[in-house]
Amino acid sequence: MDRQREAERNRESPFDVQWELGAGPERAKPKLKIALRSVSPETPVERLPAWYLAEWLGLFSLSWVALVFVVPAFEQAYCEMGFVTPGPTDVILGASHLARSLPGLLMSVLVIVGSVLAVRKRRLTRYALSCLDLLAILFLGFMVLALFLPVLTNIKQKL
Q: In terms of Cα–Cα distance, which of 66, 93, 91 is closest to 79?
């Protein structure tokens, strides 16, 4: 029974999380101790459901499609209207130029192939894919904000 519990704990996370209560006046303040557990190569790693990978690849593809097709339309509209683009918008425009170039295309293919291989070889964990999902969502939010900054700046200047 203990071995089964230990095996389940090893599959959940490579970290031991323990709450300690201090002695004396610190007793009311619990301290969080996180220690990296040693996981041997023989420790079985849980196979990830396919939707974890599909979610990450979907968010990555959405970001790439937005950089390749949507951002250039905004760039052309800003040029036609004579808007001055602020720094965050310039970053997104630069990322769009990179995504449309050959190195950007090769990097995108490498990310997709690498993600699939890492999940198949069980080198990419659920936690890592969740972090990648969060980064993709934050990037999409930053992209939307950066694309509308020139419009907001122009409205502010006219008021």
A: 93
**Contact, 111 vs 60, CB < 8 A?**
yes
- The residue segments making up the domain with residue 96 are 50-158
Pair (151, 74) in one structural domain: yes
32 with 54, same domain: the answer is no
- pLDDT for the residue numbered 15: 46
Examine residue 44 and state whether it is found in any structural domain, yes or no.
no
Q: Which structure tokens are listed for 110?
A: 């490498």
Give how many domains the chain has, as a whole number.
Answer: 2
Cα 86 from Cα 84, distance rounded (Å): 7
What pLDDT does residue 132 have?
87
Q: Which residues of 13-44 are buried (b: 16+ CB within 10 A; e: fewer)?
A: eeeeeeeeeeeeeeeeeeeeeeeeeeeeeeee
Question: Full-prediction pTM beyond 0.70?
Answer: no
Q: How far apart are CA 94 and CA 124, in angstroms?
A: 29
Residue 71 · residue 93 · CB < 8 Å:
yes
Q: For the segment 2-61, what is each residue's pLDDT rounded down to a tens digit?
A: 556 555 555 544 444 444 555 555 555 555 544 444 444 444 456 666 778 888 899 999
One domain, residues 21 and 98: no
